Amino acid sequence: MAAKAAEKQAGGAPAGNVPKGKYKIPSDAKAQTRELGRTGVRVSILGVGGYHLGLPQDEQESIRIVRRALDHGMNFLDNSWDYNGGKSEERMGKALRDGYRKKAFLMTKLDGHTAQSAREQLEQSLRRLQTDMIDLVQIHEVIRDDDPEQCFAPGGAIEAYVEARKAGKLRFIGFTGHKDPRIHRHMFEVAKQHGFHFDTVQMPINVLDAHYRSFEKEVLPVAVQEGTAVLGMKSMGAGLILESGAASALDCLRYAMSVPGVSLTITGCDSEGVFEQALWLATTFKLMGEQEQKELLARTAPQARDGKWEKFKTTHQFDGTIQNQHWLTSARL
Q1: CA-to-CA distance for 5 and 184, rounded, in angstroms?
Q2: Domain count along the chain
Q3: Is 4 domain-assigned?
């Protein structure tokens, strides 16, 4: 089921199957928070993934998820210009009405690698999200060897990001990618050559990543040294880790949230039941002990072999900007 859903669109995932009401959340429960690198901002240890908000048939369910999250202090909201053809941003924008924008730390991602395409995509995102300022905007899918050079070239995306920050349209700048730690490290190197500091970096952190082409081992220490906040994603590998039988959803999340140096973990919630599970964990979280981590990693090592279940590393199945290369240079979905 996961593979079929993922083929529908890069970043896809299987539908959640946690019944609503299974996890009881006290009305006064608040998500735990951490410092977001050197930004001076505190954010919830779990963030609401934007892709999945475009999946429920009833958009009111998506709106309820976002508002309940914010009411409980789960304030980090993830999104992207391309998610579900813009539907994910539109739903989030509706959820942020009625004063909810003030409760949120809002993030979205842009695919454009040219300054012009990044500018146009940002304007579309601002309109859909119904705001005049996005807290964090990240360069999406840094997955090709020359992506760093493209973004920092004259007329490249970084020009638009810096310009938008000066104009007050965004506060912080980051980048994301899921393909290869080597490319992430190269992005840091090219940024340093240009005297540029990234506020955040988003990368896969999960029980299989620790064994194969590991962002946790190869990129996280670089980010910590640079003072760049680490945003963990794909804690369940878009559901594929669950399909593999390597670990349960809660074990996947708890492991990712316990990795030292990770500011927050972004998780998709495509139903209120799945969201309640995440919120319960965000409010009751306790670090996974060292022995429990070792046992979990030993148990998951066979499934991690050759990246079979981390298809975002080994195939183009999750590469939106490979499947839609015009996103790199235009604002046409």
Answers
A1: 27
A2: 1
A3: no
Asked if 202 contacts 176 with a C-beta cutoff of 8 angstroms, the reply is yes
| Residue range of the domain that includes 295 | 31-328
Tokens found for residue 62: 């998506």
Check residue 1 and give its pLDDT.
30
6, 311 contact by CB (below 8 A): yes
Whole-angstrom Cα distance, residue 45 to residue 74? 8
pLDDT digits (tens, 9 = 90+) for 218-245: 999 999 999 999 999 999 988 889 888 8
189 three-class SS = helix
* List of E strands, 221-327: 229-233, 262-268
**Which token pair is 237?**
């590998």
The answer to whether position 26 is within a domain reads no
The C-alpha atoms of residue 180 and residue 143 are separated, in whole angstroms, by 7
How does pLDDT run across 8-46, given as a tens digit for each residue? 444 445 556 899 999 999 999 999 999 999 999 999 999
Distance of alpha carbon 324 from alpha carbon 30, whole angstroms: 39
Number of CB atoms found within 10 A of residue 300's CB: 24
Q: Is 13 a member of any domain?
A: no
Q: Is residue 131 part of a domain?
A: yes
Return the half-sphere exposure (C-beta side, CA atoms, 13 A cut-off) of residue 31.
30
Whole-number Cα distances in Å, 134 to 109, 150, 168: 10, 24, 9
Side chain identity at 68, as an amino acid letter? Answer: R
| pTM listed for this prediction | 0.95
Angle 125-223-69 from CA coordinates, rounded to 5°: 45
- Residues 6 or more apart whose Cβ sits within 8 Å of residue 23: 273, 276, 277, 279, 280
Q: Report the C-alpha gap between 213 and 310 in whole angstroms.
A: 10
For residue 94, which of 132, 134, 127, 56 has the smallest C-alpha distance?
127
Q: What is the CATH number of the domain that holds 86?
A: 3.20.20.100
Residues with Cβ within 8 Å of residue 206, at least 6 apart in sequence: 232, 234, 235, 236, 237, 241, 252, 255, 256, 310
